[in-house]
Amino acid sequence: MFTMTWDHPYRRRGRKRLIPLLVAAIQMIGVTFASHFPANQAPATPRSLDLLAYALLAGSALAMWLVHVRVELALGVVTALTATYLALGYPWGPFFLAFLFMLILAVVLGRQLSAALTAAAGYALFVWLTARRGIDPLSWHSLVAAVVIVGVLLFAQVVRANRDRIVEQRRRRAGDERLRMAREVHDVVAHHISLINVQAGVALHLLDDDPEQARTALAAIKQASRDTLRELRQTLGVLRGVDEQAPRSPAPSLDRLDELVERFATAGLRVDVHVTGRPRPLPTAVDLAAYRIVQESLTNVHRHAGVDSAEVTVGYDTDEIVLDITDRGRGGDAAEGNGLSGIRERAASLGGTVAVGPRPEGGFTVCAVLPTGGDS
Q: Transmembrane stretches, by residue range (predicted)?
């Protein structure tokens, strides 16, 4: 079931735009709170917070928005404003959060070198400016700052790797879905157009000599074209993610094999169906794949084999279903026609196997084995 979520990307983008505001608030509130604890400040008496201090705290966070212009520009402005706050001797506290967030953002966006160079420059500025405030460059302040910066860079790299993995998975799923839909459209169109083509030829041939038989062929064309449009609407509706109304007919499955056989009989191909084992409900994906494999195999027989009959055997085993479609036609390259690659792909996507080839006694066979996951 598809759900319309057209506004979701905008909501996500809106949340991202709130991050600088949140960081600005944390920096200003945190520094204000920390300024009331002189024991936690540097040895030099800190400069009292004023309008400029709050402007630097807010500006360093809001400058993160410059990432939409250029990542390096945002890195430089955030670093400069943070260093200016420290150089002017304002109270300590979480005044560096915007700087750390900007390093993470740069790495996630693929600017690892720029982030590393900025981190090194920021650390050097921190050591130099704290030394001017009377703090030993080798004190625990410098050690903690180095550990925090390195830890933030490593964390950002892990986030980026995970993001890349998720993006690749989404891209792979989208590719698989496009391939599945392409197979579905091909099977629908190839099958019905093949029947329409044959019936159109019959109607043209009999139009003058046997109008009643021509009428029957035209009725079959009408039904086949209606089925084609209906299945294409369903397939394209799923592709668009539109589900305003439920499908008006059941999805293709082995339960509808009799309807498929009747359509081929109308087109002049007699199909004998044999079922072995105990029939049972199948997983939806397996049921659809089985139906499409039989459909495509019979379409190939109808178009390439040059015969008027075929056999279909459906075998239910404990944890698999075996499909065997056989004809006594020309075999060889004529039967190795369109759609066999799609049959192989369908089976492979479910962990199944397909064997195709000419028969020693003549004709051609397609044998597909699809796992069903045990008894249902």
A: 21-39, 51-67, 98-126, 138-159
pLDDT (tens digit per residue) in 173-221 = 777 777 767 666 666 666 666 667 666 766 666 666 777 777 777 777 7
| Chain CA centroid to CA 37, Å | 52
**Two structure tokens written together for 233:** 């609407």
Model pLDDT, residue 312: 93
Locate tokens 């397609």: which residue? 366
CA dist list (Å): 7 to 2, 139, 304? 15, 51, 49
Please name the residues in contact with 212: beta carbons below 8 A apart, sequence gap of 6 or more. none
Domain edges within the chain: 8-138, 253-376
pLDDT beyond 60 at 4: no
Tokens of 165: 């993995």
Neighbours of 88 (CB within 10 A): 14
Phi, psi angles (nearest 5°) of residue 69 = -90, -55
Q: What is the CA radius of gyration of the chain?
A: 35
Strand order in the sheet with 309-316: 270-276, 309-316, 320-327, 364-371, 353-358
Looking at beta carbons, which pairs linking 251-258 to residues 24 or more positions away fall under 8 Å?
251/284, 251/288, 252/288, 252/291, 252/292, 252/295, 253/282, 253/287, 253/288, 253/290, 253/291, 254/282, 254/287, 254/290, 254/291, 254/294, 254/314, 255/287, 256/291, 257/291, 257/294, 257/312, 257/314
- Three-state DSSP class for residue 317: coil
The partner residues of 353 in beta bridges, in order of sequence, read: 369
pLDDT band at 8 (very low <50, low <70, confident <90, very high): very low
Residue 355: strand pairing partners = 367
> Is residue 247 pLDDT above 60, yes or no?
no
Q: Count other Cβ atoms within 10 Å, centred on residue 105.
A: 21
Average pLDDT over residues 13-32: 81
Reference 328, options 300, 364, 304, 367; nearest CA is 364
Specify the CATH superfamily of domain 253-376. Histidine kinase-like ATPase, C-terminal domain (3.30.565.10)
| Pairing mode of beta strands 353-358, 364-371 | antiparallel
Tell whether pTM > 0.70. Answer: no
